[in-house]
Amino acid sequence: MLAHEFMRNAFLAGTFVALACGLVGYFVVLRAQVFAGDALSHVAFTGALAAAAAGADIRLGLFVATVGVAAGIGALGRRARPDDVVIGSVFAWILGLGALFLSIFIAGSSGSDGTAAVRVLFGSILGLSAGEARLAALIAAAACVALLALARPLLLSTLDPEVARGLGVPVRALGGAFLVILGAVAAEATQAVGALLLLGLLAAPGGAARLLSDRPWHGLALAAAIAVGSTWAGLVLSYEIESLPAGTAIVAVATAVFVFAAARRALASGSIRPSSIEA
């Protein structure tokens, strides 16, 4: 399998993108901002359509839109933790813009540009060139470093914002910085699993880790491991099963791990008894 360059590129980009998604996704779950992640996945596609309609690089549209909207959501929300009303309003606005850019794009697009836009929607990790894979890995690694640099105060402000504020932690600034990192990761991860499946790679590993461990640092490492492992397993499955898209396989594995974690937690808490399963 690794004799093929496209698979080596996929593993290189996928590993670092998954690592960033796992780390960021754990905080997304911990901070109850999954809806924000879902909104940013749609922002990514709208940004790509806007860039394609303007004849610009799709990656530029991805990053400008997701990072800009993420920063805007943080500024609109209280203490940089926007509520569902703020996110829902931005979501509706972005969907409206997406419909506009889609109509403009369809009216004047070429076949190759259309293919590129579809790849943003569904992911194209197996179609990355060596240069694109290295750039994706570099951007994802930078996002990981930025998040880990903020991890300790961000964790405190997430679990107990009042205590963090009393200790002089800039809670609002940290929340805004986290949303910007989330926007960058969402933009980069879109090319791996696509805008439609992006939320799965963000939320499923983080949710599974939250269920499997109550220790934050252990959970953070576990979320990263689940995301990377799901990506590796998904790439292997997509290689062995030619009709199975890589993005679908990756998110399916991550979701299966989350289901296992939820069942394990339910069994441990006694809400599901083994005897009832056997029956």
Report on this model:
The chain has 12 helices and no strands. It has about 280 residues and is mostly helical. The longest helix has 30 residues, at about 130-160. The chain starts with a helix and ends with a helix.
Name its key features.
globular, ABC transporter involved in vitamin B12 uptake, BtuC, mainly alpha, 279 residues, disordered C terminus
SSE topology sketch:
Blueprint: H1 5-30, H2 34-54, H3 58-76, H4 84-108, H5 111-122, H6 130-159, H7 161-166, H8 171-193, H9 198-212, H10 216-240, H11 246-269, H12 274-278
Helix pairs in contact: 1-6, 1-8, 1-9, 1-10, 2-3, 2-4, 2-5, 2-8, 2-9, 3-8, 5-8, 6-8, 9-10, 9-11, 10-11
CATH structural fold name: ABC transporter involved in vitamin B12 uptake, BtuC
What is Rg?
A: 19 Å
Backbone shape: globular
What is the averaged pLDDT score?
Answer: 82
Strand content: under 5%
Biggest pleated sheet = none
The stretches of 5 or more residues where confidence is low (pLDDT under 50) are 275-279
CATH architecture: Orthogonal Bundle
H-E order: HHHHHHHHHHHH
